[in-house]
Specification:
Distance between the termini: 29 Å
Largest sheet: 5 strands, mixed
CATH class: Alpha Beta
Oligomer: single chain
Number of strands: 5
CATH superfamily: Glutaredoxin
Helix content: 25-40%
CATH architecture: 3-Layer(aba) Sandwich
Number of helices: 4
Order of helices and strands: EHEHEHEEH
CATH topology: Glutaredoxin
Length: about 110
């Protein structure tokens, strides 16, 4: 279950919530059966609180949204994609430390 300030993304709302977003967006491509995805979920919850109002954090369940996974060439999960101004500006594969993810967000907010 996502934190209150984490957006559940899907094929229907991705354009509005991510591509058309005025604020940078971190998108977590994940699946319920993915162990590393579960490991970084609490980190993303913390970052969603820390960056509230400056960065939007969203999650895409790749099992339910395979077209998005294909469109963004997701070959392994978790995959973290950072969008700014509707453009993909950064991509991180695998479970990353909070420090790594925070550094990526600081770059797009700065």
């Amino acid at each position: 279950m996502a934190a209150a300030n984490i957006v559940e993304l899907n094929e229907a709302n991705f354009q509005t919530e991510v591509v058309a977003s005025a604020t940078p967006v971190l998108v977590d491509f994940w699946a319920p059966w993915c162990g590393p995805c579960k490991m970084i979920a609490p980190v993303l919850d913390e970052l969603a609180t820390e960056f509230e109002g400056r960065v939007k954090i969203g999650k895409v369940n790749v099992d339910d949204n395979q077209n998005l996974a294909v469109e963004y060439r997701i070959s392994g999960i978790p995959a973290l994609l950072v969008f700014k101004g509707g453009q993909l500006v950064q991509q991180m594969a695998g479970a990353r430390s909070k420090r790594d993810i925070k550094a990526a967000l600081d770059q797009v907010v700065g």
